[in-house]
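Progress narrative, work stream C.
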Amino acid sequence: MSAIQKTLLRNGRIVCMDSADTHASAVLMACGRIEAIGDEEGLAALCGPDCRSIDLGGAVVYPGFIDTHSHIDMYAAWVGYPYCGGRNSLAEALAVLKEYADGNADAPIVFGYGYDDTAGRDHRGATTGDLDALFGDRPALLAHISLHAAYANTAMLKLLGIDPASQSGNIEVVCENGRPTGLLTENMAMAAIGRLPKTTHDEFKKGLVKAMSIYNAQGFTTTIGGGLGLGGLLPGDTLRALGELEIEGAMTVRCHLPIINNGYENAYRNGLLSGPGSPHVRPHGMKIVTDGSIQAYTAAIPEGYHSRPDVRPEPLFTQEEMDNMVWLAHSQGQQVVAHGNGNGAIEMAIVAMERAQARMPRKNPHHLLIHCQTASDSQLERMKACGFEPSFFVLHVWNWGDRHKNIFLGPERGARIDPCGSAVRIGLPFSLHADTPVLPQMTMRSIHTAVNRITSSGEILGPDQRVSPLEAMRAYTTYAAGMCLDSANRGSIEPGKLADMTILDRDPRTVAPETIKDINITGVICGGKTVYGDYGRK
């Protein structure tokens, strides 16, 4: 019988993030779990003769970071498509799409994503005319950065069964002068994305491996998915690919995966959502997309938008429909993961949960309200009372903050977007996310933004909504572990928990707050194995 292989991480600053805020200089791992914490001398007796020793060189070790909302499956499927964001004009974005089209003559649909219509000089989206001029009869689709809208050319409209020469009766097919402009929103945009050719199984697996490596490089050992079944990706295909990768030993990120609402009942009935899952893959819960996106003008904001006060979108469901979906998942002991950007959608989700809890109280259910960007303090208080916890998209402050103030919400509402500070004052646990592929994973920038709330122009937006570095780190560790329904195994560095850790070159809690964004992630350990960085690999 072979001896158990142990690994000692020494000469570091171990920030355990436990209830006692324990700090240590060494941690001992065995069988993918944490065996003990302390100092090198004190742990020597537990190491044994064949213990592997890794010198951290003074690096800082935190519990493995947990991403509480992104679309790793969609990101993986789109690895071969061009990202058209970060451009100064529509022409530049279309040039990226044209380069892809020219290099992929056999692609049945020319597709790119990430275009941000209010970021460049044009302040407009693409039209059928813009896309027709470049791509002719080839179907072409450019997804808006929010993924709640997309721009289609004439050939793509025809592929979707939309008459390009007539007024559409579907409000999600935007028309002007009696014909579609090319802009599709919400369900229609997602239907268009769903027409993309299916990625082969092997290519999808390769995409997942690449996506996980990118997540690892940003410190992540766990992710909560954005909803299996979105974007034309079948839940069974994703789970099969992840399952095979786990058997092959290629999983480097643990995946907690809610099912999109229209596929939930089938998944539950077939037992897919029962039990704890495997070490790396757990399907659980129902994802409900309650409204759209603020920057696409489709979020449910009853008061209207600052620059377009007449635009007041409704939620995507009636209150009765929302009540029924929330009750179904809640009553079956599942997690509700509700997307809500606008305060109208947030209110609908809270009302539904209050009614579900009145019928069947559940203590600490850790239901998730994703984005939760325009929640009032009173709504946050009611969330705490009914068991909803927010995952804030705080990177909005940095990436869109100036536009929230000047275009979308106005100075007063824009200043409290993603109200982390209010959550802390109320005592409501919260987490943070980047919603990849909406934005690339950028963890230290996200933590920096929660602490400093500095926009891309350098303005402080809503100083009263800033939080301490400790609270920002909890958002990616201890608080986020509760939202994975697994605080017993992750979120802090304690004996018996998973050996999932993220290594930094400096401590966000001790550096000057304005330098947090400059901290480097130098290593990631998942299940006791180094999945990013050189620690123990040399």
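Work stream C, second folded protein:
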Amino acid sequence: MRVIVDLTRCQGYGQCVFLAPDVFTMRDEALLYDLQPADEHREHVLRAAAACPVQAIHLDRTALSMHPPLDRESRPQPVGGRIVIVGASLAGARAAEVLRRDGFTGELTMIGDETREPYDRPPLSKQVLTGQVPPEHTLLPRLREVDAELLFGTPATVLDVAGKRVLLADGREVGFDRVLLATGTRARPWPDAAEAALHGVYTLRDARDAAELRQALAAGPRRVLILGAGFTGSEIASVCRELDLPVTVVERGPAPLYNAMGGVIGDIAAQLQRDHGVDLRTGTTVTALESDGAGRLTGARLSDGSTVEADVAVVALGSVRNVEWLRDSGLAAGVWGVTCDAGCRAVDVNGLVTDDVFVAGDIARFPHPIYEYQFMSLEHWGNAVAQAEIAAHNMVSDQAHRWPHLSVPVFWSTQFGVNIKSVGVPTFADQVVFTQGSPAERRFVAVYGYQGRITAAVTFDQAMWLEFYQHQIEQAAPFPPDFRHVGGEARGAGGADGGPMPARVPERLVAAAGVTVAVTGHDPAERRASLMHPR
């Protein structure tokens, strides 16, 4: 059987740990679990799923004894045609299930560049690296039979929008009536190819990466060097300390997690890392990776003139969206992702919404009404699931019954024994205030505001507050919060008077990487835009 926990919903009640202790474990509020437990634990897992107060545990359809049939009135009307999903990870797999759930009875094809079935990626930087879960136990549960043609192991290379076909690397063509683009991201490589190829240099994005890095960590390196202190880099550093491995983290910004949560939370994250023995170097970069002359990593030179000796280095410098294959498609696709409307319909280079091309997951760049309709791309588990459901529903619905993607972003991270969760967009803020708990004890709620309204909240081991603040964000509640609440005033936080303080978030930039838009034609019927890519 396969198990997955929606950690955006999990609030740390621990009922699953009590009912199935051989499958679920909890460290403070951080839940860890085996994604593919042995059959002998089946009954215990079923009880745990039924007892979960927030219904966050999802099981493979084969783990359930029966599915109650839909009555005739609630059964969706059948929809035919041919739908192609390009991208067979979380968003693509979820979209396929929703298509069948919502009545799609036509031909369904899933195209993916990896050879294995869709799997869950968050455990790769957590349970897999510690050895708690093998990489092959991260397969996503099949919530329903999708009856699809699976073209795995061959990436898509061209999207012909006018001809309604997808071209594959092996020369095959796949036609469609509607297509969903969900090709996700890949790890950003170290820019020097020769240095990146050194033995001991790793990235972490897929299951093979995780297996190789796990083997390297299990061998007991002298020191691990991590380039980047975002969520992936910080989680890997946490695993290293859990394995009692010396680790140095080099971060260009002023603090870990700065780009996602700003400087106030970043300072707390920095102290958390240092308290756990991490050699954290902020405000500096790695300028070169060094070798022994025989192709093995020996260390790195830093921009401040210092050096670090290490025989394992993990490049955690963010991700690259997999959109190169769309370059000549006529869509508004670039380093920013693929632009779409709130209904997940792709936008072409002229700014017109397409009818048959949809986008979901990490590559989707969409306008969010809560955040002044600004376009954003969210590389979070919860967004991939929610957006895939919206896209799939809209692909088989007429205009009057389509839904907008209005979910408030939620994401989580487990590192150094702390369960970090966020709702909203913390970087869309000008102030932040601690409303519950104690930052000094690393158990608190921080609420972000922008021009007098709440826009986000971050919790450290206080996940039960997340749903409350999600509702506050959705209702455009005033900032700073003026309600009385359990927990009283936050201790050891805030400005001089304990109130709001500057959020210290990074400047919001639009990634363009030199791409220019050119407009040609004079008559309104002839005017067209095109993307001018740098040479």
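The chain has ten helices and 35 strands. No further action is required on this item.
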